[in-house]
């Protein structure tokens, strides 16, 4: 009985805890812009060292994730400039290999213009093969959320997410997630949303 109570305590604690690693300014005048989901294909696209990127991510998937980010920020009552607006600046500003990808994103932010620019980098989006109660291959998602302070020309936060769902027997530490997912194998979209919520929480959004 004591073991059961202890396990439940750990589960409830893991669900209740929320980490904030960057305190996003709450002033009304502070402007946040969100870039469309970016799928890096080459080494010069990378902002935080080389990360293997799946070259087969469909553009429709990126659009779905853009919408998911928009909906999540809306639910959190976050005021922001949508990716459709930021995309116009991305199309205007041409990337040059002579300049760094860091400088490129700063210029995009200046073009919008915005105080902060949030850039989702999508490296892997492996869909679930199978159903809720049995899979041949689980969902696996890898992405980064980069937050730039455009005025200071500085990368102020990076959130990295890399998770492939595993069974409870493979990892007992995933007990909290097992209960939260109701014992089901979730989709890649659901896995992305889990990571997104954690990332936005760490940024303070």
TrEMBL record:
Keywords: Signal. The keyword Signal applies. The keyword Signal applies. Residues 1-19 form the signal peptide. This is Lipoprotein.
